Amino acid sequence: MRIIVIGAGAVGAACALALTEAGAEVIVVDRTGVAGETSSRCEGNILVSDKEPGAEALMAIEANRAWRELAARLDADRVPGQPATEFESKGGIVVAFPGGADALEEFATSQRGIGVRADVLDSAALREAEPHLSPEVALGVHYPDDAQVQPSLAAQAMMARARHLGAQLRIAEVTAGIVERDRVRGVQTTSGRIDADAVVNCVGPWAGDAAALFGSMLDIRPRRGTILVTAPMPQRVFHKVYDADYVGAVGSGDAALQTSTVVESTHGGTVLIGSSRERVGFSGEGLLAPLAEIADKATRLFPFLRDTMLLRTYYGFRPYAPDHLPAIGADARIAGLFHAAGHEGAGIGLAPTTGALIAHAVLGTPAPLDPTPFLPSRPTLQGVPA
Amino acid sequence: MSTVHITFDGERLSGREGQSIGGILLANGHRTWRTAAGSERGIFCGIGICQDCVVTVNGVEGVRACQRTACEGDAVEREERA
Amino acid sequence: MTRIVVIGAGPAGLAAAASASQSGADVTVVDEGERPGGQFWRHHPDFTDPRLQHQLGRFASLQQALKNVRMLSSASVWRVEAGTPLRVHALVGSVDAAQRRGETLEADAVILATGAHDRVLPVPGWTLPGVTSAGAVQALAKRDGIALGTRTVVAGAGPFLLPVAQSVAILGGEVVEVVEAASVRTLLAGWGRRPWELGAAAGKAGELSSYVGTLLKHRTPYRLGSAVTRIHGTSSVEAVTVQRIDADWRPVAGTERTVECDTVALGHGFTPRLEAAIQFGCAITHDRFVQVDGQQLTSIPGVHAAGEITGIGGADAALAEGAIAGLAAAGVPEADLRYREPLGARRRMHAFAERLKTHGIRSGWTSWLDDDTVVCRCESVTRGTIVEYADASARGMRLATRAGLGPCQGRTCGRSVEDIIGASESRFDRRPVLSSVRIGELAAHRASTPNTTAEGESA
Questions:
Q1: Which of B44, C141, C416, C459 has the lowest CB atom count within 10 Å?
Q2: CB-based contact (8 Å) between B16 and chain A?
Q3: How many distinct structural domains can be found in chain C?
Q4: How many Å apart are CA C211 and CA C159, to the nearest integer?
């Protein structure tokens, strides 16, 4: 069976790998290259800590398990051009300032209820875990299962492995879907027509545009985020540390700027600082406001950052679905068309499980969890204004 | 022409007032003061672009020695990157 | 009164500030140096040997003309914004100090005169102590009165190698050899044709004879059509290999010579500092310079550019371009007589600048690299690693190799990495933060300015 995957970001690469390993002939089409867009403009989170109990949280737990196995497999046996994923089971610590501590504790209790390990740290344990944290922090909860990869490298690694197993990569832009009698026949690209039995839309924040090329509809919108990168330094942050108001920021439907501090160290010695969310279309203007706000909040969490040199900043667009769940599965109307998009800030973390769900939807291989909540045909995703 | 005194990793050095920290280090026989992946670095571009020459001055990291004028009593230390 | 901000206090910036101020504008010059002069007039008032300085009379008269100009020195521009008004965000204080004072300047016109820095091609062994750029030798000589070593080889391409060799000699160092990539034939073809075009740049001939005189006096060999292709030493420079290179800059086998030395100064031309122009949104030419019209106006309303960022031409071209930019930014009409002198000077100096392309880098240089030659100095990334990810997307290659992601953000290695992977367009020039800013300084910016910028917010 021949399948076209549109998009070579983390989700596209994971789908390509899953489909190829299940025996399909896969052609990945991307207009920029592997991890050319959102997947190389993010932090590479593989979190179980930041989701309210629900369908996405269950998927995150399964994906966390899947990443451990996948990263080990990929890193053990690298082909030329396949970078290491830099998978790190670093653990996350969510902190609250006075006034937010009770809410955080309740949240942690609810997460434990669905099997997420969440350990409240007493003051001494918190200082030991993160000695540079501001003394104003009132509470910390440790999530030992939170992990991270270098997202661009991880996407490149998955893609390299898929290609090694026979998948093809074409750098071209899809200009039209070829649909006959409500069935997908292939795509038209800037370098010619490609016939296929199925097409998977992994186009991230542009997934709505991609769906329209096939005469279908998918309500995915861009949600801009910015990240600050510091100069390299000896390690001063030992986990992914973030403010408990992060969950609220993710879940907000407000288009205006939401910031919430997220701080972590990287392999190279730099510290990544986020996070911001705004719905400004695909604009790259007006970046100073989110960057300054992130900087201000971060120094409250880690005072040493005040004098740390900023090396560079970057921004990217998360694919935002108005009902806050990714769209994974068959298109509502057009046979042979599948979607895997709308993961907001969780695309990297949920990638391997998305790949498995797509392999299930397209080829019938076993589903790792109930796919129903994520189906693109769900009523809350049919273009109702958020 | 007056003298200025600084320390480098505790060692007392003197130079001419107005000289850069890098200039004083060089004048005192320190050609390099940073290690990068096993190789020793000091001044490379000399005009503040390459960041090879960064030192920690009075506890603040990331100071380009070639651009920063030395002040009396400056405590200069090797940078510890990662 | 027209508010003008000039970024850069080298020849172009000072000339622009002077002519703008004399035409009645309210001018502020923002410069990262402690005192004006840029690279060309880098000096310390007490101990820079005057023999190292050129055109000091010009410098002195410019400074006279700057009496009404606000000179904001020790000021690092970290962000610029187009719009009405134009905005320039600077941090003022000691170089790389923490908690510098933030200042935002608003202007009706901005003149970019951010200059250039040395382009140094990687050479096996170039990370050894004792290897610097040609500009570093000049900077250390002029600013600190220091010579780097005792036996120096000056190598690369272009007339700049000559004043560098001269400054080593003035400070009492020995220049063992000067190595120039262009061959006799190339030099004659480049500089010898249509000699009348250069007649008006007669001052340069005097300058040239001064440098040549120094070389002759010290019996320093000036090797043409050659390059330093390897640098040797255990813990510091001990010798170099000099080889003949062909017209494509490819080393010729069998022509290797070993030259003993303890210092190597490398300069293969100049890279313009385009970051502020790019952040404003200025159109960049195919040759990678800021595109300007006859009035030195860029593609962004109110933003002018002068000096090396519009084309490598040296101080004389920069002075002329700066003067024109200053007049234009101050609103002096095109037909005004005040333009005549700088227009003539610009025409003459552009004829000279055109000839500098004789020394332009040719693509064969990459063949003198080994796989384990460090290309990105900040992250110690070798040629072999870069080539392995040459097919990845621009971001993918950077993230996989880390080339260009270190503290200098690709300023030193960027063009060389592009040459090695054969990239057709720039992958490095766009920088969101123009110069080092500390997180706390950025946070303080939030407190000091209103949160909204109206431009570009679309649903």
A1: C459
A2: no
A3: 3
A4: 10
User: C293 and C400 share a domain?
Assistant: no
Q: Domain limits at C383?
A: 369-421
Residue A43, both tokens: 């932090």
Q: Rounded to whole angstroms, how far apart are CA atoms A149 and C318?
A: 48
Neighbours of chain B (3+ CB pairs under 8 A): A, C
Give me the interface pTM, i.e. the ipTM: 0.96
Tell me the CATH number at A252. 3.30.9.10
Measured CA to CA, the distance from residue A309 to residue A230 in angstroms comes to: 6
Is residue C252 assigned to a domain?
yes
**Which residues neighbour A141 within 8 Å (Cβ) at sequence distance 6 or greater?**
A49, A93, A94, A95, A104, A105, A108, A118, A119, A120, A121
pTM comes to 0.89
Establish, for the pair of chains A and C, how many residue pairs have beta carbons separated by less than 8 Å.
135
Cα atoms found within 13 Å of the Cα of residue C332, Cβ hemisphere only: 23
User: DSSP secondary-structure letter at A358?
Assistant: H
Q: Is residue C353 part of a domain?
A: no
- Nearest by CB to residue B61, choosing from A233, A235, A268, is A233
Alpha-carbon span C374 to C380, nearest angstrom: 6
The CA-CA-CA angle for residues A169, A175, A180, to 5°, reads: 100
Domain count, chain A: 2
Note down the domain range covering A293: 92-142+222-320
Kindly state the tokens that stand for C266. Answer: 């490398």
In order along its 459 residues, chain C shows pLDDT tens digits of: 899 999 999 999 999 999 999 999 999 999 999 999 999 998 888 778 888 888 888 999 999 999 999 999 999 999 999 999 999 999 999 999 998 999 999 999 999 999 999 999 999 999 999 999 999 999 999 989 999 999 999 999 999 999 999 999 999 999 999 999 999 888 888 888 887 777 766 667 778 888 888 888 888 899 999 999 999 999 999 999 999 999 999 999 999 999 999 999 999 999 999 999 999 999 999 999 999 999 999 999 999 999 999 999 999 999 999 999 999 999 999 999 999 999 999 999 998 888 888 999 999 999 999 999 999 999 999 999 999 988 777 777 888 899 998 899 899 999 999 999 987 666 555 666 777 899 999 999 876 655 444 333 332
Question: How far is residue C16's CA from residue C233's CA, in Å, rounded to a whole number?
Answer: 46
Q: Which CATH architecture has domain B3-77?
A: Roll (3.10)
Tokens 């017209």, residue?
A: C247
Nearest-5° angle of CA B7, CA B13, CA B14?
125
Inter-chain CB pairs, A–B, below 8 Å: 20
Which residue of chain B comes nearest to C118, CA vs CA? B45
CB contact under 8 A, B61 and A232: no
Residues of A in contact with B36 (CB under 8 A): none
Q: Indicate whether C155 and C168 sit together in one domain.
A: yes
CA distance B11 to chain C (A): 21
Which candidate, C453, C411, C417, C419, places its Cα nearest to that of C436? C411
- Does C194 lie in the same domain as C107? no
